[in-house]
Amino acid sequence: MARWTPGSDINVTAGPRSLADPDAVRASSPLAPDVGLSARGSSLWRDGVRRLRRNRLAMAGGAVIVLLVLIAIFADVLAPLPYTKTNFGRLNEAPSHAYPLGTDQLGRDLLSRMIYGARVSMLVGLGAQLIIVAIGVPIGALSGYVGGRTDLALTRFIDVMYAFPRLLFVILVMSMLGAGLTNIFIAIGLTGWVGIARQTRAQVLS
Fold it and tell me: Which of 23, 42, 66, 91 has its CA at 20 to 30 Å from residue 29's CA atom?
């Protein structure tokens, strides 16, 4: 027995089995959703990974980052010489077999110092970003969520910090705290949270 619905071009044939089994009627319709396709629906992470794999430049950049991280981790193994070892008999030497990148004014191997420098750079970048996120995200979220005078005050404070010269502020903080790797984290973190605070506020408001 054929049933026709006005305004539709779908013909659904309802036989003895389809009357007893509604799933058979839904499966016979051309507009029925593809259960297998929906089950294979990709999440945001899978979609991001798929897009990343299609972008060759992004994959190349990721490979470089992974390489730098590995160099920083295994600096003790990869460096040919200790980065503090001096050789006053070979000052400011040009690249050679013994010193592939030459030496500095104290006779230290530049290649070894660059390899160990990757470790310091990674630590500074990671530590500073943790401080930036810890400061910027709460301020931006509070400003966007509470609103009113709180939002106005925090927004003006963010604008003032954004207008302040960042390099000058870093120098000021370092002069107050003194030299040291931890103080570098703090100095960069205290000056770099403005951008992420604005982005977080915009996301909360939207």
Answer: 42
pLDDT at 196: 92
Q: What is the pLDDT of residues 19-38, one digit of tens each?
A: 445 555 444 554 444 444 44
Contact 3, 14 (CB under 8 A): yes
If you ran DSSP here, which 8-state letter would residue 93 be given? P
Q: Identify the helix (H) or strand (E) that includes residue 152.
A: helix 148-163
Two tokens at 108? 């230290």
Q: Compute the radius of gyration of the chain from its Cα atoms.
A: 31
Query: What separation, in Å, do the N-terminal and C-terminal C-alpha atoms of the chain show?
Result: 53
Strands (E), the chain: 2-4, 11-13
pLDDT of residue 142: 93
The single-letter code of the amino acid at 202 is A
Task: Please tell me the distance from the alpha carbon of residue 100 to that of residue 102, in angstroms, as a whole number.
Answer: 6
Integer Cα distance of 180 and 123 in angstroms: 13
Looking at the predicted structure, is the pLDDT value of residue 5 above 90? no
